Each structure stands twice: as structure tokens, then as C-alpha cells.
Amino acid sequence: MEENMFTPGGRKRLQAKSDRENAPYPRGDGKVKLVTPAWLADHMDDADLTIIDTQPNVHDYIQEHIPGAVYLTEGVLRVSNRGFPTSYSPDACIQESFRRAGLKADSPAVVYTGKGVFSGWGDGLAQVMMAYTLAKYGHDTVYILDGGIDGWKSEGKELSQEFPSVEPSGFTINVRNDYAVGYDEFQKIKDNDDVIVLDARPKAFYEGTSGPWRARGHIPGAISLPWRSLMDDANPALFKSNDELDTILEGHGVDRFRTVICTCGTGREATNEFVLLKWLYRYPNVRLYEGSITEWTRYPDNPVVTGPRAREERTEAAPAR
Question: pLDDT above 70 covers what percent of the chain?
């Protein structure tokens, strides 16, 4: 009777849970893990550790940051390319940015963000966006500070206004192309029975009642799983408890036996769900459609669906370029 409460893989996932306080979490050789404020406080003086501040505005960093942290804005990660506004920056630019931050591919890096004590702009996503990008471009040990600087402050940890002395590194990028799925492949596989497409945007964007895109709504077949529903109500940089996450994923039919494609508006929100499923829950087949709805609606003939549709409502229209 109890087994019927779980979708395929649900029981295995629950059995695989471990204590998130036992940082870095989870155990094993994953590229991205969570650490706690207590862990960082104990390790912040480690000689090989780099702390990366991705707060939403440089003035937030200037006003307060974790001691020893170097500022690296997520704004350097993407630029316009042939008019498309959300392409990743050229490899050489990303490599130089990582070098100037002192990053080393084989040495641990902790990334964090916050709501922005000066700007108030922070939505919590900068740290997962940076963590995904670091891993994508060849970093091997990326730690996300669960709760970000706001969680750090809530535990009364030390803050600083000192700028660290950072020697540029010799970071050499090594792009892991298997993390992302491109437009052509996405349109070929998205409706396969063994594929589940998640849309991480807010419900109003998914249903098409609001949003900036030329065609409002969602990619046919996608399931609405707003990234914010996975995070603490008060702190958008803090993942909900494992029990809460299990319940949410089970309720959306997300399991490890299918390929999960994470999508959103521009590929940024989806990094939250990619990080969660690939590295925290260790799903074997997780991809990120970096172009997401912005690229999908770039082609006017591509269909979109409005309203709270179920995944079973697939389109028979062939996406066009």
C-alpha cells in the first residue's frame, strides 16, 4: 500500500536522502554541492578555497560581503550574439573573468548571493546560475552556500568591507556540452514518452496571462514547476527541506527514469532546477534548454499553449525554424 504513494524512482530517491547539515551535501563526486554557513565559517581560511560573491549589485558587495569573498557578477556570463540577447559570452571572456577571480578548476569555490542590502534587487538565482556556469565551463568542485549571505547573516556570522588580494589564476575552460540541449535537439525529443519538460517560470508566465515574450504561454507539453516553489518562503537562496522537495517533485511526476529537460524564460531560472535534480538528487539524465521560451518564440511558427495545461496535451504541430 505504501509503495503506491510513490512514482517510479520515488522510493529510491527518498532512501538516498542524507542530512544536509552534513556538508558538503550530498556526498560523492558531484560537481556542485551545498554547504552551510557553519561549514563555511569553519573553512573560510582554507588556503585553496575561493569565495565568490554574486550579489545583484556591486554596491551590495561594497557595503557588506563574507570576508575574503571576491565579487563576480553574473552579468559577465551572457551577452548578445547576432542579436539574440541571452547567449553565453565568448569562451575567452568567461575564461578571463574566472582567472581574474582567482578561480582554479581543481580547488573548491563557494558561491553565494543575497537580496541585496543596498539595491534590494536579489531574487536568489545568481548563485545557482553561477554554479551551473562554473561547472559547465570546467570547474570541478563548486559549493553553493545554502541560504546565501542572508542565511549567513541570520546566524550572526562575520561580514566585511575589505577587498581581498587576489592573484589571477590560470583557469582554462573545458566546456561540458552535455549539460545543455540545443534548439534542434530539443524540438526533436521534447515530446518523447521518456522525456519530461519542466517550465521554471512563475505560473502567470506559464499560463500566458503575463510576460514579455511575443507569444505568451508555454512550450507544448511542458509542466509548470515554478523554481520559487522549491525555495524557502522567506529566503529565495535557501532550498526547502528534503521532505518538502520530495513531495513537490512527486506531485509533478518528476522521476529519475526519464530525461528531464529544464526550461524557463532565458535559461537562468532553470539552472535552479537543473542544479537540484542533477547534483543534489543525482538524476542520471538532466538537460538544460538554455534558449528556453525566449529562443522558442523567436520562431513565429512555433506553437505555444496558454492556460494550466497538462503534459498529456501534446501538440501535433511540428516546430518550425
Answer: 90
Residue whose cell numbers read 573560510: 44
Of the candidates 264, 270, 286, 293, the residue annotated as catalytic is 264
Alpha helices for the chain (secondary structure H): 10-15, 37-43, 58-63, 91-100, 126-136, 148-154, 183-189, 203-207, 242-251, 270-274, 292-296
Where do the domains of the chain lie, and which CATH numbers do they carry? 31-154 (3.40.250.10), 180-296 (3.40.250.10)
CA atoms 272, 274, 277, 282: torsion sign: negative
Residue with cell string 571572456: 93
Phi, psi of 160 (to 5 degrees): -145, 160
Residue-wise pLDDT tens digits, 23-41: 999 999 999 999 999 999 9
pLDDT digits (tens, 9 = 90+) for 193-231: 999 999 999 999 999 999 999 999 999 999 999 999 999
Angle at the Cα of 281 from the Cα atoms of 184 and 203, rounded to 5 degrees: 60
The Cβ-side half-sphere exposure at 155, using a 13 Å CA radius, reads 15
Active site residue 262: no
Instruction: Count CB neighbours of 259 within 10 A.
Output: 17
